[in-house]
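FAQ: What does the model actually see?

It sees only this:
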Amino acid sequence: MRPAVVIIALSALMLASPAHAQDRPVTFIIGAGVTATAGEIKTNFGSGFNIDLGATFRLTDAIGFQAEYQFNDFGRKQVDLATNLPTDAPTTFDVKHRMHVGAFDLVFKPKMNGGASGYLLVGPGVYNRSVDLTTPGVGYVRVCNPWWYICYGGPVAVDKVIGSRGSTDIGINFGGGVSFPLGDSASFYVEARYHYIWGPTVDDPTTGEAVKANGKYFPITAGFRF
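And it is asked to produce this:
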């Protein structure tokens, strides 16, 4: 609820601004939405929510440069891992995943007179992904999960598994959206994007294979430009 309250409050300030958003050299964005996942990321973490902040610098009438920060939270997911000692019962782990994104995109927006207008964007990004592992269990477990940034070849004590791990990597994003004018001072936008991240390589000592912890994310965001 908090992101929605912030957006509503700021939208009132946007609408009170006397300047024309489309004519200014710099416009600001604030939004929130859902972030879906795909592939192994979806299996390990599921979907979450995002909060988006940024600014767009108009280079020409049709081209702009957008710098933004996006926070993604994928909540907690319970996962059972095989236990060797002291019993054969599985140990339940709580897994929490977060992602911070810094994106730098070119924005292509055809010139249109009034009404809704579409746009496309593409560019590189810097992605910091973190994973927190917690459990009340004790004993020894087997775990090899590149997307948790952890892989052991045999049973290890639970206290070696729990903790926080993360990686900062390079990726790319592209997508598009539609803006709807709100008077002369602001607009409401809805956009969808695809993010692909080249993650670190994790060696699996049990198979001898090297697995890349690449990521695929699909944020859908709605918000305001002012």
